[in-house]
Amino acid sequence: MRPIRKHSLTMPTFDTLSNWLENHGRVLDGNISFGTTNTDRSRNIVHFKANGVSPGAANTDFTISHTLGYIPVTIIGQDTNNGGLLYRGSAAWTKTTITLRCTTVTATYNVWVA
Question: What burial class does residue 30 get, using C-beta atoms within 10 Å of its C-beta: 0-12 exposed, 13-18 middle, 19+ buried?
Answer without folding.
Answer: exposed
